[in-house]
Amino acid sequence: MTSQVRTVYFNGQLVPETEAKISIYDSALMFGDMVFEMTRSFRKRQFKLREHIERLYAGLKILRIPVQMTPQQLEQVCYDTMDANDHLFAADDEHRLMIDVSRGLLGIYQGIEGLHKGPNVIVADFPLRWTVAGMGQLYDAGINAVITSQRALPASLLDPKVKNRSRLHYLMANIEASQVQGSNNWALLLDPDGFVAEGTGDNFFIIKDGTVITPEGRNVLRGVSRAYLMQELCPQLGIPVIERNIDPYDVYTADEAFMSGTPFCMLPVTSLNGNPIGSGKVGGIFSRLIAGWSENTDVDIIGQIKGWDAALGSVSSDAPTPYRFKSK
Questions:
Q1: Residue 273: is it exposed, middle or buried by C-beta count within 10 angstroms (0-12/13-18/19+)?
Q2: Has residue 327 been placed in a domain?
């Protein structure tokens, strides 16, 4: 009989998502010692899954988490997990995969009976609309980026190029941004040298004189969407793109700005600390890029997210998201 609840790949088997649990003695709980990836599909076909997995394995190598599964095997697990859950997804849903790998039990707890020994490999699958709920209006209004006192962690302290679960500094930045008056406030972190680094789960770009500019990949997570924009989409559309240091002055004097991230692809940034960027409206190059991305994936990205929002109605939860913290 086909299961009527979503299932999660958990250390070699598919289990109901409510039963996919790791121990309170896991290194992930003690240290945030977990490498992870979040993916999305377009028309239920995964986008850049191999690139996400390659980045995951780079993190596993650097953190010395001894996973026996090969990247090819993990990729197949992802497809198997999608297949097991697809009958529970609406026709217009997209698959949002969450791949988590933790080191497992710390040594002093290894003797506890009944607990899984060794790394945990987990693949969950849930509707993408959960992640992007309420974002549809941002494609019209744009984000107000808020520079927070919380700085990005430099690679010399904790390398952000390893996508890990030690993300308390992101949450602190979101809490600070939530105290700012007005709506659509998203945190923008500077690095210790005062250069713009990234958002709390997204990469940042400005556009000046027709050129797309993004911070150097030194103190940021080098996003899969960021790479797609720089290496494929901008060249395809004949739009110059460069990496260089950006300071707040460059953002204030830019023509346009935007964030990139896997679930929403791109979102316009129309102001910085309440000060309009360019015209203060969504710009022409942003519109060209998101239209090109939509054409390449055969999905109206903006229309899809707005459609989900219209079906969902108002979003009432005050729980934090990866991008925002809602003050009560």
A1: middle
A2: no
